[in-house]
Amino acid sequence: MSRARPFVPTSAALRSSPWRPLPPDVPQPPAAVSAPANASAPAPFAASTFLLQRAEELLASLPSVVSARIMADAAGAISEIHVLTTIDVAPKQTVRNIESALIAHLGVRVDHRKISVATTASPARPRLTAEDGGAAASEAAAAAAAAAAIAAAGRRIYFDDVEVLRSRSKGVTCRVTLRKGDASFTGEAEGMEHERARMELAARATLEAIAAAEGLQGLLALEGVKSVEAFDREFAFVAVTARLQRMTALLTGTCEVRESLETAGALAVLNATNRWLANGR
């Protein structure tokens, strides 16, 4: 018995076959498309160049921060934050300030493990030797100018202390002490005792101390103080009117309430005014 050979169509059979491919104008059945595995996963935070620059400027305005640098990965998510600070504020407090500032101003939450803090006593000036040539001298001059710019961009007035005194006759007196260089300046404000007044008195006292330190008596006025709940935390939000000649500017600042309402109110005022003062008003 002979074995059947498999049928192999010839070219002529294929040409005469009634089964032909559909013409291009006939719709083809849709191909199955599988959904990506991470379709339900949220997109990572995409940091544009403008947003990174804004975030770096924000961090540079925090207490004791001299300079800040934010690194992003290929997906646009913040991968590293490097800040250089003075010894006025502890590194742990600086990390908390960075987390609070990014959440309050930009709505960005960053893991504290991505934040690196380095401290310095003062911006260093490069030293030149006799062997350095003209190119080295130019590089040193540029480095010195950059260091001066970093120092100028930093905070010029620092928070030192806040004191609350209670009296039956005067109510509550809030005394805020600020430091500018080696000098200390104190401002006081009196009023009734309740939660909102505590922040307001500290803010008014801070403005008095700033006016004494900068010679701005009558040029800074407190517009208002408000306690704001956001991201399961409490923040002090202040608005300050700054007057220069015939022009006025509205300055705003925030600070998370951690130690006390008075401390948060004072730091919020400094957050609002230090950049204005550093830019020469």
Structure description:
The chain is of the alpha+beta class and 281 residues long. Helix content is 33%, strand content 30%. The chain contains six helices and nine strands; from the N terminus they run ααββαβαβββαβββα. It has helices at residues 11-16, 49-60, 91-106, 134-153, 195-214, 261-278, and strands spanning 65-72, 78-85, 115-119, 158-167, 171-180, 183-191, 220-230, 233-244, 247-256. The strands form three sheets. The chain has a three-stranded mixed sheet. The longest helix has 20 residues, at 134-153. The protein is globular.
Beta-strand residue fraction:
25-35%
pLDDT below 50 for ≥5 consecutive residues: which ranges?
A: 35-46, 123-134, 142-154
By secondary-structure content and strand pairing, the structural class works out as alpha+beta
Rg, Cα atoms, Å? 32 Å
Indicate the overall shape.
Answer: globular
Note the quaternary state here: single chain
Q: Look at the structure and give the mean pLDDT.
A: 75
The termini sit apart by 108 Å
Estimate the helix proportion, in percent.
25-40%
**What's the helix count?**
6
Tally of DSSP β-strands: 9
SSE string, helix = H, strand = E? HHEEHEHEEEHEEEH
Strand order of the largest sheet: 1-2-3
| Largest sheet report | 3 strands, mixed
